[in-house]
Write a structure and sequence with these properties.
Number of strands: 11
Radius of gyration: 31 Å
Strand order of the largest sheet: 3-5-6-7-4-8
Helix content: 55-70%
Oligomer: single chain
Length: 715
């Protein structure tokens, strides 16, 4: 092990499944798979198509993910990798999350900005590093999920699992390995490992009866292992069940028969509760359901048929989970620090197909309630929040309109909020837009849940920098809330304030001031003049006044807000310090340099004492004080504060961070103003080189540095 860049190498990132009990390496099916996965290659594991087998059928569960785990672990254990990354590719958001987690683990790239920025920086690093790495892309079915993020590099390997290898037949050169039925020797080896040599009499015949289907063998061996059956006993049971199934519906796949046997076995181990547990799990993401979901009050109540307050519910739910696992219907993966339940999607589909009447609705609602209760409030750990989002996406597909009975289920809003909080800006826009469209279709445009979804969409547009769309939707939300709820409803007033913020971002400062004046007046009348929401609106109005040149009005509002905050929250509360910082800027804009400098100095002292010298707010205050000194003609102090701010940014964020590079521009202007032109040019040349190395082409910071360098060099 070694330390580099703050990380301890070698590094693993992502949640990789554990190898199943009795795992078979499938030496015949994938004899040279490990050897084929050399540096610079892409290897794809996909189901082998069988004539007459429909996509998504029982043979879809062929063991490709387990093979990927085996290969990855083999390379890791052989110390042929410095970096192993496992990424689930169900959605663009899950890809971005995987890249962000890997970037945080590696600590070689800047982690600031939204998910797209972090992911693209990490992808560029993969393309440059000489450290050997492997990325496993699990369940890749839509290549657009990896748009501009495809992993490649001189030291890299890529292993893909997919249900459809067609995307890899074009420009992207890949070696496709079809994974299908076990070979006879592989099946016998699997049964021997799963059951032990002493219980394998009749194993070759059983494997043949099951058609060497991987899922059927897994389910059969689980039932045999957890009961007193022999392979011969199971053959007799299987033959009887298949004969009955053929009489009812033709020729079923072996997996369809073994699933029915496993379901009966689970019923026998946990009567009533096992089936209820399976019905809940069938609506979530079988690649990984947080184990915590099954211990929530909502899940326990559904599984046991009791109430959420039943003290025995958790024990009975655990027993049901254990029964389902013993019957081979799901697996419980308790890798270090990660606890997930995994369930084949074809088994999930079979469970859902058996639900009748009100059962699908009850199971879907229980799954949604349980997922919401298990969701981490702070979005940590990241893997848990990500798997909760993936389960919500799957729930939307499997439950569809069932989640809208009586309104939008809160878990659907929670998933969007999770995207917002984890800086997944692009996926958040897509999610809120789709949710709003569904809400509009089912509930109607004036329903409160539709208005909430549209407001979230507008906010997502604003965060994404799509200000025209944001303004348009904030106007719509305001109009509808006033129409439905009335102009004095708190939601309507908030909508007016939100519109003002969006207009500010769109540089429509006059309209913003008008909207915010109305919002402030409404807040003062309805909520009171000293309420936190009123103060926040006043400060936003002050910013609008400042942007329109009404600096004196801005000063007046900031002064009043500061007075209230000092009295209510104390002089060292973060909100109070922020208001004083903004007041300093208003003083500066109004030409009142002495007061501006005094405010900035007080804010700097407070933030250093309360937050520390390396807090980003403290550093920003130091930089602002430098700019204020520059404006006031106090150049020696300006140079000093800008030098200190640049050094602090470099120490905290690194030399290539956009904030550090921007601070170089401010310092260069100060150098130029005091006649240190050579120092200014040298500083800007170094900053430009770093911009071109670390930032994407055309980045605004790069353009700012180029402009400053041209001005300094031409003087």
């Amino acid at each position: 092990m070694k330390t580099q860049g703050g990380a301890v190498w070698p590094v693993r990132a992502g949640v990789m499944p554990s190898l199943a009990d009795g795992f078979c390496a499938r030496a015949e099916t994938a004899a040279d798979l490990g050897a084929a996965l050399v540096t610079g290659t892409v290897v794809v594991l996909a189901p082998a198509r069988v004539a007459g087998e429909r996509p998504g059928g029982w043979l879809e569960s062929c063991g490709k993910t387990q093979l990927a785990v085996c290969v990855a672990e083999s390379l890791w254990q052989a110390r042929r990798l410095e970096l192993l990354i496992w990424v689930t590719c169900a959605k663009r958001a899950s890809v971005l999350s995987g890249y962000m987690e890997a970037a945080a683990a590696v600590r070689e790239t800047d982690l600031s900005g939204d998910g797209e920025s972090v992911a693209r920086r990490f992808a560029r690093w993969l393309g440059q590093t000489r450290l050997p790495w492997l990325m496993v892309l699990e369940d890749l079915w839509d290549m657009t999920a990896l748009d501009q993020l495809w992993p490649s590099g001189p030291a890299g390997r890529v292993l893909v699992t997919t249900a459809d290898p067609a995307a890899f037949s074009g420009e992207l050169k890949a070696l496709v390995y079809p994974v299908g039925l076990y070979r006879p020797a592989e099946a016998q080896g699997y049964l021997a490992a799963r059951l032990g040599r002493g219980r394998c009499q009749g194993a070759p015949e059983l494997a043949a009866d099951l058609g060497y289907e991987p899922l059927a063998l897994a389910q059969a061996s689980a039932v045999i292992a957890s009961s007193g059956m022999s392979c011969r006993d199971y053959r007799d049971l299987f033959a009887a069940k298949r004969e009955s199934a053929e009489a009812a519906s033709g020729s079923p796949a072996a997996g369809a028969v073994t699933w029915a046997i496993s379901a009966e076995r689970a019923d026998g181990l946990a009567p009533g509760t096992a089936r209820a547990l399976l019905s809940l799990a069938a609506f979530l993401d079988g690649r990984g359901i947080p184990l915590a979901v099954f211990g929530t009050p909502a899940a326990c109540a559904h599984i046991t048929g009791g109430t959420e307050s039943d003290p025995a519910g958790a024990d009975r739910a655990r027993a049901a989970l254990h029964a389902a696992e013993q019957a081979g219907l799901l697996g419980v993966d308790t890798a270090p620090a990660v606890a997930l339940v995994r369930m084949s999607q074809v088994v999930q589909a079979a469970v859902r197909a058996e639900l009748t009447g009100e059962m699908p609705g009850r199971a879907a609602m229980a799954a949604a309630d349980a997922l919401l209760q298990a969701w981490p409030e702070d979005e940590q750990p990241a893997w848990l929040a990500r798997t909760c989002r993936l389960c919500t996406y799957r729930l939307q597909r499997t439950a569809a309109d069932l989640l809208w009975a009586g309104g939008c289920h809160p878990v659907l809003l929670r998933a969007g909020q999770s995207l917002d909080r984890t800086r997944l800006v692009g996926p958040a826009v897509t999610y809120w837009r789709e949710l709003a469209e569904v809400s509009d279709r089912i509930l109607g445009r004036g329903h409160p849940d539709t208005l909430t979804a549209r407001a979230r969409l507008a906010e997502a547009y604003l965060v994404a920098g799509q200000v025209a769309e944001a303004v348009s939707w904030f106007r719509w939300v305001l109009t509808e809330r006033v129409r439905v709820l009335g102009p004095d409803h708190p939601s309507a007033i908030t909508a007016r304030r939100d519109l003002g913020r969006a207009l500010m971002a769109a540089a429509e400062f006059g309209e913003a001031a008008t909207a915010l004046e109305r919002a402030v007046a409404d807040y003062e009348r309805v909520r009171g003049p000293d309420r936190p929401e009123t103060l926040a609106a006043q400060e936003e109005l002050a910013a609008a006044y400042r942007a329109t040149g009404r600096s004196a009005d801005a000063v007046r509002l900031y002064q009043r807000a500061l007075e209230v905050r000092e009295r209510a929250q104390g002089p060292e509360h973060p909100d109070t310090m922020t208001t004083r910082y903004e007041l300093a800027g208003a003083y500066l804009a109004d030409g009142r340099y002495k007061k501006a400098l005094s405010c900035y100095k007080r804010t700097l002292a407070d933030r250093e004492r309360v937050l520390g010298p390396d807090d980003l707010g403290t550093i920003a205050t130091r930089a602002a004080l430098g700019s204020a000194c520059h404006s006031a003609g106090r150049m020696a102090s300006a140079v000093q504060f800008h030098e200190e701010a640049r050094a602090a940014y470099e120490r905290v964020l690194g030399a290539d961070h956009p904030d550090t590079l921007t601070s170089c521009v401010n310092l260069a202007y100060a150098y130029h103003a005091v006649g240190r032109v050579t120092d200014a040019v040298a500083l800007l040349k170094d900053a430009l080189a770093r911009c071109e190395k670390a930032l994407p082409p055309g980045d605004p910071v790069t353009r700012t540095v180029q402009k400053a360098l041209a001005a300094a060099a031409g003087s």
